[in-house]
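Lab notes, practical 5.
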Amino acid sequence: MEAIEQIPKQTKKILTDITGDPRLEVAIKMTLKDAAKYRLNEINKSIKKFSGKYRIDFSNFEKSWKEGKIKDKFPYNIEKDYLEWDSLITRKNKLERILKWIIWIQMTSLH
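Output from the prediction step:
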């Protein structure tokens, strides 16, 4: 609770106005959940672009990469795609865990 008291009044107002919930703690959780969902959606769009570009999902692309089945895998653009795609998968997994935690917190605070 101490940290919530340190949030500037204008920020509190914005959070409660955005969510429509006057309870600041609830508004914060709702905003975090919405932000995580939004980011996850954006990451999924980027992942889908790579899957479409290479006509394969990342796990199969990575397997082919490691097994040396990708021809010319070290040109800058292909290596860059691999690293970016890998990073997106890592961020996606992290955000999915965060979203589950936020949902769990919301569920347990109802009781």
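Observations recorded by the TA: The radius of gyration is 20 Å. Residues 2-109 form one domain.
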